[in-house]
Amino acid sequence: xxxxxxxxxxxxxxxxxxxxxxxxxxxxGDWDTVLxxxxxxxxxxxxxxxxxxxxxxxxxxxxxLDGETVTSARTVxxxxxxxxxxxxxxxxxxxxxxxxxxxxxLAPIFNETAxxxxxxxxxxxxxxxxxxxIRVLCMELNRISSHLVAFATGGLELGxxxxxxxxxxxxxxxxxVLEMITGLRMNHAYIRPGGVSQDLPAGAVEKIRELLEILxxxxxxxxxxxxGNPIWQARTQNVAHLDVQGCLALGVTGPILRSAGLAWDLRxxxxxCGYENYDFDVAxxxxxxxxxxxxxxxxxxxxxxxxIEQALDKLRPGPIMVADTKIAWPAQLALGSDGLGQSLDxxxxxxxxxxxxxIHHFKxxxxxxRVPAGQVYVGVESPRGELGVHAVSDGGTRPYRVHVRDxxxxxxxxxxxxxxxxxxxxxxxxxxxIDPVMGGVDR
Amino acid sequence: xxxxxxxxxxxxxxxxxxxxxxxVGSVSSAPERADVVSSxxxxxxxxxxxxxxxxxxxxxxxxxxxxxxxxxKGPGLSSERPYGGWFDEAVDALEESYRGFGDTVTRVVVxxxxxxxxxxxxxxxxxxxxxxxxxxxxxxxxxxxSGVDFPDQDERLHVVYHLLSMTYRRRLRLExxxxxxxxxxxxxxxxxxxxxxxxxxxxxxxxxxxxGHPGLTRILMPDDWDGHPQRKDYPLGxxxxxxxxxxxxxxxxxxxxx
Lengths: 443, 258
What we know:
Radius of gyration of chain B: 22 Å
Shape of chain A: globular
Order of helices and strands of chain A: EEHEEEHHHHHEEHHHHHHHHEEEHHHH
Largest sheet of chain A: 3 strands, antiparallel
Strand order of the largest sheet of chain A: 3-4-5
Strand content of chain A: 5-15%
Structural class of chain A: alpha+beta
CATH class of the domain at 87-232 in chain B: Alpha Beta
Number of helices of chain B: 4
Structural class of chain B: alpha/beta
Oligomer: heterodimer
Distance between the termini of chain B: 25 Å
CATH topology of the domain at 87-232 in chain B: Beta Polymerase, domain 2
CATH superfamily of the domain at 87-232 in chain B: NADH:ubiquinone oxidoreductase Nqo5 subunit
Distance between the termini of chain A: 51 Å
């Protein structure tokens, strides 16, 4: 039997040769050799995640600790990488919506809108007024549901369990409305290049108005539960500080930037979808900590309600898709007794009377439309910051390249700046205040 | 003009699947991959009214996007002045005050209301620093770095930077190119720390090496992964299906309705 004594091979298994081959004896390391050299340092490396209830999804944090103080925090991502950007290149432009909606799965409507705006910019078309208003309506509903999850999971991670159950309950109210409008709670694929896939169903406006009645008092409940709560304050105030300069250097946008005192909101500073016509305030605080981020998100819930109310008033009857039949989906969807369905009149027309319409339908559905060559970048203000879509077309019916600048991906880089030098427990609060969605981070 | 049809599309197998009715798992003799796709970003494409030629009849009947369309490489021209909007003023200011403008910026392209400066790859970081610090430009925020692959070009890997000036509320795109054999681009992490993750992603997906990056490692793919998935020549896998040994072909070889 041979044993290995040299320090570099301290962890290697000893082995001996037998008639059956080499047999290895695997044992643990010798603690004296492991610790002897630097017992005075007490440097501990803690690996959190990717499967950990407080890492906000499949995020992995590798932290070096000195006692309970974090001396180094690194984020490891990629556990949810699904190659959405690559997949887009093998589907036509309309099908792309179905993919991008799955990126930041808590804010699907924003992904769809940013992507559709980019395709529309490449095409040089403008969606009709009603479609734009519906987009704004859905985006703000989605912003509420997304921020509610930020409170729910953030609360859960800091031990405020009731905040979690209540916020998820209110979120379900919003998702019910989105389900009524789009057919799905999440991953809607509702907003399409050129407009939206179908008009608001009967009763949707009334249901949204009902929601506008209920939500303010529900928000007040959450507000009471958290804002005045001394534990919540202690866990969030003066924790994970990141000032404006740090935010800009790290590319951080959204509520984190606004919590540092800079009122940068693309809805105001670079309006799209007609946001310049809505009356609302940009929530901003000077705190630059987890508490400030909480206050900003809380304020944005109320601002979103204001926008939704105005959007309902702006709704006028009209088309919800561009008139250009080279782009618009040919089959007008009509709700049948079995849920979604094609318009029977349309089927009759293409099958019975118009060969031209049938060909047209077939080509649009199977190949999709061509998009003139070029590249564009479009940014929208998602609940987490600037969501940008860089779309490149080579003139074909499929995207040549689509890159999504996901705010969570960029904001996660602030983890080290927020955590290092603080306590381990504050690192949890820091990540919760970043509110990353790993579906968007990894794409 | 960047997309010019060069004659008619090459002859290829029956497009509507007449000869591939052999049953489960048969793959149509899919056309060769369109590795001749030209740079979409090489030059501002000609203004084409929306809706016209959306089915590409003028390009010869093939509309799949994979039908072996042959396109000439764009001549790589700058847009013509005046650019319109704030673009003239911004480019003038840069040209006057930035030493080495001529050596740095190779082309200025204005398309769809967006300004793109094509920059030599060694000069990206220096130009970014200038654009960030100079009072006439003030691009405080780098929104991201990403890549585009154009396999038919010598310098096929394009790296794209999106800058945002909060002071002037302007957006600017920088674009630089490098070849697969020498995929080196100056890192901008020193100017914009936010580029850290973005450059790692571009390295991971396209294999562009950013010189000066503090730790250029893979970020989305596993550390021991081979290849760079977003390159156009990266092989796509088919999905094995447990039905009489059938195999779903990779997406770029599937039958398309062209």
